[in-house]
Design a protein that fits this description.
2 copies of one chain form a homodimer.
Chain A (H helix, E strand, L loop, with lengths): L1 H17 L3 E5 L32 H6 L7 E6 L4 E7 L11 H4 L3 E5 L5 E6 L6 E7 L7 E6 L6 E9 L4 E4 L7 E5 L1 H4 L10 H9 L3 E5 L8 H7 L6 E5 L6 H18 L5 E4 L11 H23 L5 E4 L20 H18 L4
Parallel strand pairs in A: 10-11, 10-12, 12-13, 13-14
Antiparallel strand pairs in A: 1-8, 2-7, 2-9, 3-6, 3-8, 4-5, 4-7
Helix pairs in contact in A: 5-9, 6-7, 7-8
Chain lengths: 359, 359
Amino acid sequence: MKQIIVLLFALHTFTAFAQGKVQWHDVTQWGVEGRGWGDQERAKWFDRFPAKAEKTVTKSVWSLSRHSAGMMVRFKSDANTIYAKWKVTSSRLGMPHMPPSGVSGLDLYARDSRGKWRWAAATRPSKQKMEVILLRGIKPGLREYALYLPLYNGTESLAVGVPADAKFERLAPRKSKPLVFYGTSITHGACASRPGIAHPAILGRWFDIPVINIGFSGNGKMHKEVGGLMIEVDAAAYIIDCLPNMNGAMVTERCVPLVQQLRKARPNTPIVLVEDRRFPNSWLVPEKSKFHDDNHAALRKAFKELQTAGVKHLYYVEGDPLLGDDFEGTTDASHPNDLGFLRQAEVFAPVLKRALKLE
Amino acid sequence: MKQIIVLLFALHTFTAFAQGKVQWHDVTQWGVEGRGWGDQERAKWFDRFPAKAEKTVTKSVWSLSRHSAGMMVRFKSDANTIYAKWKVTSSRLGMPHMPPSGVSGLDLYARDSRGKWRWAAATRPSKQKMEVILLRGIKPGLREYALYLPLYNGTESLAVGVPADAKFERLAPRKSKPLVFYGTSITHGACASRPGIAHPAILGRWFDIPVINIGFSGNGKMHKEVGGLMIEVDAAAYIIDCLPNMNGAMVTERCVPLVQQLRKARPNTPIVLVEDRRFPNSWLVPEKSKFHDDNHAALRKAFKELQTAGVKHLYYVEGDPLLGDDFEGTTDASHPNDLGFLRQAEVFAPVLKRALKLE
């Protein structure tokens, strides 16, 4: 029976694809959100940074900026089946602590009848070039979809498909100001099981505004060169979440200058400083606990110094509550699991609400 | 700098291992929890079922029973560093939707000063045979640890190491009655990012009692042959959580006989029937929603029939709340992510509390 179902499924897929019954839409034709500096020259279409960044940022940051973390494309359709084909740049589809579904996969959400985003479908990448049915048997109705791109791989190409007779409307990236998240591997999305559950993506849905993710695994270090790129983006808020890749001395050296750099260029844009989460096993490892203490103290001091200097529109997120209080919020001590990501979003949300003047 | 740290780390590891400064303890010498039927002949030490099961259960169930899902070994130590070396039976270390850390990795918890289990360390398997430092820089003190074994791979061997001068006490599997979870891929542990966050493991820690995990990916179907093995275990409770692999007709056919089989052999052991969770995208896919409706109705009917027939100590867990209400609790619609697993544990807990007469 199982074999028959698999066969029928395969036949169905084959037929739909082979007979040209699918209308394919290359997303580069109408644009994705989370692709900042969109009017500038780019080395590759799905890079997060414009080509010029290669000359200023570190080699590591440049290399990591070629992952499509945080990108998301919207469309409307009444299709009963949604297809996708995409190719990623690296054959490393997954990592020992993060599955291919998050590293190299897509993640689909749909707006419900009340206008809220709800999860719809994810993928299971097994090769660099994939062609899949994202979802079948969808109930009738024209609705809006958001498709998130791979977090820890580059995207070479991406097309969305629907049956030939279905409506398909390309939705251009929204013009509203984005949240810009500058951070580490955590912002980058490790270890989300799928792209839509990294906290920048969750917050983008909750506030229903665009997000630019500039998280760089191991390399979110408050670089002024990254600051130089950030000020080119007229953001709803800048979120600076680099402490997991820094230490107290680096924070003391770089935090105030980075905030001053952003503030000088963007006098009214909210800036949110985020402490590092505490490793859930730091109760067992005093050295690790001291690392967090030092980082937190250094950021708090920088924050006060900036306030004293009269810098306005500054906000602060404390690190200790970020992952909850049951020690279960990570995959590997450092990186949130999906549980930790949701909790981070819950801690960020009230601060962003104030920063965005939504309360 | 990074290279130097890596080098120092490698040297440290090499020195500790090479100079024989680590005392290794083969866990088969004192036993693991979650290895039921422990006094019977076994095809392989870390199999979940005794050898005789191969003659009765389906080929698929037998094959999947060779994964070490749910096994956990306890020890006490005052070591400042804990090592592990283990080998898994299959070279498939991860799956497209589940990382090697969950499929083939270990997961360490420790008891805090109040006697509560807290998470301590996980692993990042990159090959079949691994030798790692689980945790370093541990604060002084003799404490109890629990190390969970791989969920979706067989364990060929496992040894725990501590420095030669550290205390190490092997803690035999507890004699108290275990919770026996009979289920599908979800019980088996997909898609937990590490072994300790599958819901049977969480519940084992919360209730602080042993757990036997007999979840079989795609093959948890209320088989009477599995029931025949279950009755040999004097359980604290039998949890039957097979609906995701069944349909209404199968539930109607098999549920009452399985419960009667267990009840006949074990007149007073609580039996918990669990509905299937609802796919978080079933709001979009009417056919899927109907599948859940049919399953739930069939299980509810079987439950009432059993109650009417005077079967005592029966408990029921509803499926709709299992993954929460925000549609984010899975990796791929079917399988909980770590968020979904915690939520499942939260829904199971009050029912198990009643079943175990703890309230």
